[in-house]
Design goal:
The structure holds 2 protein chains of 2 kinds. Chain A is an all-alpha fold. Chain A has 10 helices and no strands. The mean pLDDT of chain B is 91.
Amino acid sequence: MDWTELGPSFALAVGQTLYMTSISLVIGGLLGLALGVALYVTRPRNLWPNRAVAAVLNVLVNVVRPIPFIIFVTAIQPVAIAIAGKSYGPNYAIVAMSAMATFGTSRIVEQNLVALDPGVVEAARAMGAGRLRTILTVVIPEALGPLILGYTFVFVAVVDMSAVVGVVAAGGLGEFALVYGYQRYNYAVTWIAVAAIVLIVQLAQLLGSTLARRVLRR
Amino acid sequence: MVELRDVTKDFVDGPRTVRAVDGVSLDVERGEVFGVIGSSGAGKSTLVRLVNALERPTSGSVAVGGTTISDLPERRLQPVRAGIGFIFQQFNLLSSRSVAGNVAYPLAVAGWPKDRRRARVAELLDFVGLTDKADRRPGELSGGQKQRVGIARALATSPALLLADEATSALDPETTKDVLDLLRRANEELGVTIVLITHEMSVVSYLAHRVAVMDAGALVELGDVYDIFASPRRPITRRFIATALHDRPRPDALERLRSRHAGRIVTVAVAEGRASTTYLADRWLAHGLRAEIVFGGVTEVAAKPLGSLTFELVGEGRAVEAAIADVRSRTEVVDHGTAADPKDGDL
């Protein structure tokens, strides 16, 4: 193993993984939050009960979520090229990753909000809070602890996606492991990539758990 | 203050339609404590949610402070709700905010500036006696303290109307009294009109001026608390009163009374303007009877004496009959007979 050759590639790959993961998490996390809140409020007897909208959103989420990510990446290639301007590299991969993260996050957000005591929502409404204010100042803050844990879970899933996109030449630790490890029969290199990903996930989990504990203890 | 006119509320649950409130009409006067009592499922929680438009009536009209709210659009309802305090059985405090933050929330909704909010929160926490808990989280408080925060929050915007939905049902008896005393102070010192939803008649007798009895969504009896306690018309009302007073012997106790005492057993209602204990003692004496109190008690309802006493009357048979007829002309008398000749006078 020649680290004078591999070293710069490895550093670049780590940087690309962190870049793809964090951007996708921010975009998918925000869109997923909006979609998850929409799934929550349109449920029967909730803040904006709407059977038609709820049905459309549910079908959309249920259609997209089960698509294996490796197929999804190739299936939405035209969209990704239109947005990123090229058919390779981290920005190209971020389109598919953000989209899939949006749908994944939406269910996790919805589940955590449904678990919320409806009494506090009713209390906010009884105090004259509008529906949007109720969502922003009561629903989300009251569910913040579980939401942080949910987002930590999403982060790990997005790291996984960032490795899968190695097959479409997006860069990152996935492509590094494929090109320098798998294709050169060099297990040591593959395991170095694995170790790097494990480290990233561990740090994210530690951060998420600590934050959630701090929020929940209040 | 509150006017309900023929209000009905149906809930559609799949193929079934459940009528939670069935043609209720009532008026709550400004400044009074109005109790609504009923068993669970009688529709009283739905009724109170119609008053602040958390629910809309299926038919009929709801007016608060002279404004008909049952046909207002959602946006116009927000200021109406903000002007009505609401206290919940399960407190429903925001766990993401401190005690002070909870009390400040309705003020923020009403658009108060920060410095005025702080002063008002201090005032309210002083009123409910929780100044030292301002920075605590609701999770650190006892049930009674949580409800006091709930009351402070409900009173924050100085509402003229306060709705209390089973406000003491999750509390132990001691804490219940503290919370009821606090509600009474809100009514007497601040002049807040209170609608009090409960399934406990003792809460009604302690605090309310008038009471409405609900059964299966309908209003079956309404009147001054003392009058309802002194002369209930419906069996369901009698059952609620019995849970609060415990002043009449139940069948098994009656059995024991008859076997222990040879004389005639009668239960006499004691109420202001009808029969006092002195009056009864005089009557028994006038008919030449020896009377012993064997069961019962007199308590205060709405600050007036009320209860019933069960006597063993010993004397000549005709004198006993005459005495019973005499007293019966003034108040309710239930004749239980004797062990040898029991009468089925149970209520």
